[in-house]
Amino acid sequence: MFALRLLKVVLPAVACLVVVLGVRTVLAQAPEQHPGEQEQSSTADQAARLLRSGKAKEALAQLDRHLKQNPQDEAARRLRIRVYLTLAQPERAEADARHLAARHPRDADYADLLGTVLFHQGKVKQALEQFDRAIELDLQRRAGHWQRGIACYYVGRYDEGAGQFKLYLKVDAADVENAVWHYLCVARAHGHREARRRLFPLGRDPRVPLQEVYHLLAGRGTPEQVLARLEEKTDRRGRPLSAPQRLLRRFYAHLYLGLYYEVHGQFRQAEKHLEQAVQCRLAPHYMWYVARVHRDWLQGKLKPEVAPPQGGAPP
To answer: What confidence tens digit (pLDDT) does each residue in 124-177 have?
Structure first.
């Protein structure tokens, strides 16, 4: 989501852990290494290559064997978290994330990492505590922390969430996703009329079909216009769309139609579109996890952590 839109397509696993969360690069090596350190680095390097080649399960098996013998290898733990998130198994990543956060209690990166792992499981309140902790440790990440804004939405801290997305304008004023989430928070807190009045100006966000999603929320478009963009076979320059490009378009369309129907109280339609977004299977894409959390939230699966909404936002 937001400023990392291209990285989430090309390098989703790296974006999820190394870029979005700012965690130290797994493959970084000191200028001089002892034999044991060289072995650890080699293991992380081999596992990372397996992950990049789509062999996540093989990478996990290798890391499991290595960490049994070398539990102090933090690079391998960070990489194993990436693997778990790629396999859509965030619950298995929690132990490693907690271990690293406990070892580095003053490191904002590890607080953010733990918050992400918790959010991906639907443990939204706990995730929000870690995001707040990360900002407390590093105030410079305050404006860019859109993940925190999303978490605020699920726990009913709508004005706080809206404020977080307003801050994000300093980072990227063109991001339509940011405008959408700000709208959702304001609508829940103050109604759709006020949300439309406060809707951020439309930015030059090239991702399809986010322009149509924006017009839908603004009252100038329809769900059919959003879905119509999925019929296109070429991009704006006439080049054929690749399978990953078509998949990402389908994902964004169904994710944001699901959110649109949810905030209007049409939960059956919302669940249908969110399920279609989840079926795109884009782990470890952060917004794919948002789609899964949102679906589970509507279905009451996140109780007692957070209760599902009782209806749509007021007019």
So the answer is: 999 999 999 999 999 999 999 999 999 999 999 999 999 999 999 999 999 999
Give the Cα-Cα-Cα angle 213, 216, 218 (nearest 5 degrees).
110
Q: Residue with structure tokens 């994000």?
A: 168
pTM: 0.88
Inter-residue contact 174 to 205 (CB < 8 Å): yes
Task: Match 């957070």 to its residue by tokens.
Answer: 306
| Distances 225 to 3, 119, 180, 236 between C-alpha atoms, Å | 25, 32, 17, 17
Per-domain boundaries in the chain: 189-315
Which residues are CB-contacts of 208 (< 8 A; sequence separation ≥ 6)?
A: 229, 232, 249, 252
Report d(CA 311, CA 288) in Å as an integer: 24
Distance between CA 1 and CA 285 in Å, rounded? 9
Q: How confident is residue 82, by pLDDT bands cut at 50, 70 and 90? A: very high
Q: What is d(CA 104, CA 257) in angstroms, rounded to the nearest whole number?
A: 40
Q: Round to whole Å and give the CA distance between 175 and 267.
A: 26
Residue 288 one-letter amino acid: W
